[in-house]
Design goal:
6-stranded parallel β-sheet; TIM Barrel; alpha/beta; 9 helices; 342 residues; binds zinc ion
């Protein structure tokens, strides 16, 4: 299945009736059309398969201006409940994750300055994309401008500390400061730079240097600014599900994303979901390429309790057998860049 077929599947899937969706997908997995694999005769530079996990930590920020009906409080609460459970699982199997955190979540409080929260930051101009529609008011109208006790869905300093204190050495990455559309069309260079700088300053106060970007809603852009602010890599869709990282025209490493845990393309079944995830891992091992699972920690709690432990154990065993490495996005990009300049 090449890009066109992968694209056709991507476009077709959402408009198909539910019963056909899972039937078609099961067929594609059964017949080996999915996952799609880069068959190029080249391995990941270490000569071994790589598994990457990344998580988009956003609490209520991602649901602002959303075009689909969501309950921000409910999903933020679920995310708050899930994160400690997930960290516990990742610690059991010593599996590092790249946590792409909305910058505002480094805070435990904020207040208005001359009537507006974060008055020193530029705002996006009104825009509409496939996820969001920002058409009136101020970009920060949802910001309660109080504190974590009163509004735990808007602040996340406690969660950042939990990740930092984990036994496993996770990576903390950037997901913009206020979950903006980062594309050139909807984000002026000054806005991109200001958002990145705000995140970098807050991270630095925690002793963290940000190198990795996950674009909110996959709204990639402003690459020159990312590069000049010291970022080295980002997550993005590439031609295949199982693929190799690439270096884009700006010298940034593009880390392919493979599969979003929380989607149930073959239907909501434990056995089928695990079967699909294992297939991705096995194919990465077979071709010595990269598989990248990403997820939103607000996902349904049964996935955290049932799917994660099984799949992490599977990866742990394969790693123990010397068949794969589990790396953060930044580690992948360091290896790729080092290999490139050799
Ligand atoms: Zn604020
Ligand atoms: Zn997001």
């Amino acid at each position: 299945m090449d890009l066109s077929l992968k694209k056709i599947y991507g476009c077709l899937y959402p408009v198909l009736p539910k019963s056909i969706q899972s039937k078609l997908t099961r067929f594609l997995y059964k017949t080996g059309f999915k996952p799609t694999i880069n068959r190029e005769n080249r391995n990941f530079p270490t000569g071994k398969a790589v598994v990457v996990f990344s998580a988009d930590m956003e609490l209520a920020w991602a649901t602002r201006y959303s075009k689909s009906a969501t309950n921000p409080k409910e999903s933020a609460n679920r995310e708050r409940q899930n994160i400690p459970l997930l960290l516990e699982q990742f610690d059991i199997y010593n599996i590092p994750v790249t946590w792409a955190i909305v910058g505002h979540l480094f805070l435990d409080a904020c207040k208005k300055d001359s009537g507006r929260p974060h008055a020193h930051l530029p705002r996006p101009t009104y825009f509409e994309n496939r996820h969001w529609r920002f058409a009136n008011g101020d970009w920060y109208d949802h910001d309660p401008a109080n504190n974590i006790q009163e509004s735990p869905e808007w602040y996340g300093r406690d969660l950042v500390q939990l990740i930092k204190k984990s036994k496993t050495k996770h990576e903390i990455a950037c997901h913009s400061f206020s979950h903006i559309d980062f594309s050139d069309a909807h984000c002026a260079p000054e806005l991109a730079r200001a958002e990145l700088k705000e995140c970098k300053d807050l991270a630095l106060q925690e002793g963290i240097e940000l190198r990795t970007m996950v674009f909110p809603g996959a709204t990639a852009g402003n690459f020159d600014i990312l590069k000049s602010e010291g970022f080295t890599n980002y997550r993005f869709e590439t031609k295949y599900d199982i693929d190799l990282p690439q270096i884009n025209g700006y010298g940034l490493v593009v880390i392919p994303n493979s599969f979003m845990i929380g989607n149930f393309p073959t239907g909501k079944s434990e056995q089928k979901t695990l079967g699909v995830l294992k297939k991705f891992i096995d194919k990465a091992i077979e071709t010595k390429k990269l598989v990248h699972f990403y997820f939103h920690p607000s996902l349904e709690t049964w996935i955290v309790k049932v799917i994660f432990p099984s799949i992490l154990k599977y990866i742990y065993d394969k790693r123990k057998a010397g068949l794969l490495d589990v790396l953060t996005m930044n580690s992948v990009s360091e290896i790729v860049l080092k290999h490139e300049t050799r």
